[in-house]
């Protein structure tokens, strides 16, 4: 068991009041979970300042409290530790409490606007198929070898990350692939972790509600690379103009991948159709069932990481060709009679939507119409709404604007924000249907044989969130139901 002073190692402390030799049973950032002899870390959130819950935590048995502001009324027998930033302190405390689990395995962080889930999930698959014990921390799921755990955030809080890493280590996990979101990085969720490598996929317009400027958003991603140890590798997509910036202050060993120029790792797309991709990777032709040229980048990133982690090159190429598509990422099926191609994709940023639509347009023939069903989330970056609608209008033959997790916002108001982005020349091809199921049904009804329907935004998600309530909703299931019904 840890003493309080053990778990405060490396924490930048302003003041301590009380005994630090006591044994701490557990650590929490959520007061409701605190029990006897636990430590409570009070975080000043964007919505809630957890300092108000310090008395509750103490009533529930907390023996110590880490806070930014010392409460005026302090209890005898409780130890108070004042720090400047409780999120930062939480990261070190969690790392110490679980005895530095990230140093006992190879932890790879994957960051970038798009491709994090795909790259980390494909790496998990590849290393599992290669016979290693593996862990995954992603938006979709947390995995410890064959066990799956549900997750809410892309990058969980530092206590949760370290708890899972500890369990992974106990289960013999050798490699962990973890998504590092910009929110996670600036909120110190990934601080104090020992990374064996980091990957930068790309950077485009997203999350500007949170980071305010594009430069802040870029700098958030850069922190991951700035803080890598010398022994780690820093791998960037050099075709992205923000790639080189990531490496500027990094002490790690620097590598790049590219589809366009000379780099440490390169690939060429030889074929790209609804059956998959044919790539020239490392001078060898490799076929993959993954669809879309952007997946060439993801596969190249995966190949590069596996190579940097020492996987034999021939074995690596074989494993790459066996990788299966990731759930909700360009998942598709073709209806039996009408041969309508239905695609579900998680694209919920302007850049990702443009990528998916360009990918489909590069593959489809002129007489196959493209129907796009798309919405934008509520309580999130509103500046992307008109941009996404504009892209959908420009790159589809028919667009149905609809809802996608309106959360606490009025769904019609979100759609109106989107409509503002439609170019006058595209207005005729756009209709708005607030109910997502109705929007999907309409697309299935309107589509003619061999047409293509893209339902974008939700991907693997199986819910719709309205006013804080999540109800079941599965794009793929609705597409299957209605295409079956209308398949003549
Ligand atoms: C904007 C944002 O990042 N919010 C995160 C942040 O919330 P917050 O600062 O508002 O925290 P809060 O809800 O005010 O609570 C503050 C503290 O009070 C505590 N509390 C609260 C109530 C109580 O009774 N007792 C108590 O102790 C909470 O446990 C928390 O520690 O800290 C919380 C605890 O770590 C996170 O759960 C929360 O994620 C929310 C749910 C969220 O939606 N985050 C998204 C935006 C996010 O982080 N997304 C990125 C990926 C984005 C992408 O790439 O697509 C991600 O990594 O998931
Ligand atoms: N390398 C890439 N470049 C551009 N777009 C991509 C790339 N990889 C995936 N996409 C598009 O972005 C969508 C989201 O992919 P993915 O889930 O892998 O990204 P992500 O970074 O994890 O995003 P999020 O954090 O929002 O989950 C995909 O469905 C696809 O449309």
Automatic annotation (TrEMBL):
Question: Binding of meso-2,6-diaminopimelate: at which residues?
Answer: 380, 404-407, 457, 461
Pathway membership, UniProt: Cell wall biogenesis; peptidoglycan biosynthesis
- The residue numbers the entry assigns to motif Meso-diaminopimelate recognition motif are 404-407
**One Gene Ontology term, aspect cellular component:** cytoplasm
Compartments (UniProt record):
Cytoplasm
Q: What is the protein named? A: UDP-N-acetylmuramoyl-L-alanyl-D-glutamate--2,6-diaminopimelate ligase
Annotated residues for binding of UDP-N-acetyl-alpha-D-muramoyl-L-alanyl-D-glutamate = 31, 154-155, 181, 187, 189
Name of encoding gene: murE
Q: Which HAMAP family match?
A: MurE
Q: Which organism is it from?
A: Psychroflexus salis
Task: Check the record and name the SUPFAM superfamilies matching this protein.
Answer: MurD-like peptide ligases, catalytic domain, MurD-like peptide ligases, peptide-binding domain, MurE/MurF N-terminal domain
Which NCBIfam families did the record assign? Answer: murE (TIGR01085), PRK00139.1-4 (NF001126)
Cofactor dependency: Mg(2+)
Q: Which family does it belong to?
A: Belongs to the MurCDEF family. MurE subfamily.
């Amino acid at each position: 068991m840890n003493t309080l002073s053990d778990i405060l190692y490396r924490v930048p402390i302003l003041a301590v009041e009380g005994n630090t030799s006591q044994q701490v049973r557990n650590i929490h950032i959520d007061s409701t979970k605190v029990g006897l002899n636990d430590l409570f870390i009070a975080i000043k959130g964007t919505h809630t300042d957890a300092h108000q819950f310090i008395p509750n935590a103490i009533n529930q048995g907390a023996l110590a409290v880490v806070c930014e502001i010392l409460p005026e009324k302090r209890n005898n027998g409780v130890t108070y530790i004042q720090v400047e930033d409780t999120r930062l302190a939480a990261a070190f405390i969690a790392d110490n409490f679980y005895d530095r689990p990230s140093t006992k395995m190879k932890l790879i962080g994957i960051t970038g606007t798009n491709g994090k889930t795909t790259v980390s999930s494909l790496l998990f698959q590849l290393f599992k198929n290669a016979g290693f014990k593996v862990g995954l921390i992603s938006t979709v799921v947390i995995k410890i070898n064959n066990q799956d755990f549900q997750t809410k955030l892309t990058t969980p809080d530092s206590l949760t990350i370290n708890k899972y890493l500890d369990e992974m280590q106990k289960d013999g996990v050798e490699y962990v692939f973890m998504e590092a979101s910009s929110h996670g990085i600036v909120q110190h969720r990934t601080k104090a972790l020992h990374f064996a490598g980091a990957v930068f996929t790309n950077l485009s317009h997203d999350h500007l509600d949170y980071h305010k400027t594009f430069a802040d958003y870029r700098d958030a991603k850069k922190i991951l690379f700035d803080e890598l140890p010398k022994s780690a590798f820093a791998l960037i997509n050099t075709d992205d103009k923000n790639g080189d910036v990531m490496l500027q202050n990094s002490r790690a060993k620097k590598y790049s991948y590219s589809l366009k120029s000379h780099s440490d790792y390169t690939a060429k797309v030889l074929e790209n159709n609804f059956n998959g991709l044919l790539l020239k990777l490392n001078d060898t032709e490799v076929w993959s069932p993954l669809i879309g040229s952007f997946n060439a980048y993801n596969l190249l990133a995966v190949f590069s990481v596996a190579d940097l982690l020492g996987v034999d090159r021939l074995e690596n190429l074989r494993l790459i060709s066996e990788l299966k598509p990731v759930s909700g990422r360009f998942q598709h099926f073709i209806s039996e009679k009408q041969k309508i191609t239905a695609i579900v994709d998680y694209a919920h940023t302007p850049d990702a939507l443009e990528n998916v639509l360009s990918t489909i347009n590069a593959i489809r023939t002129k007489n196959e119409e493209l129907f796009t069903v798309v919405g934008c989330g509520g309580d999130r970056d509103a500046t992307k709404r008109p941009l996404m609608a504009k892209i959908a209008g420009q790159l589809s033959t028919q667009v149905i604007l609809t809802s996608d997790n309106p959360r606490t916002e009025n769904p019609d108001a979100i759609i109106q924000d989107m409509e503002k982005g439609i170019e006058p020349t595209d207005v005729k091809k756009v209709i708005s249907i607030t109910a997502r199921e109705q929007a999907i049904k309409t697309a299935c009804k309107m589509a003619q044989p061999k047409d293509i329907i893209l339902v974008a935004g939700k991907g693997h998600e199986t819910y719709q969130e309205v006013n804080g309530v999540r109800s079941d909703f599965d794009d793929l299931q609705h597409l299957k139901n209605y295409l079956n019904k209308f398949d003549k």
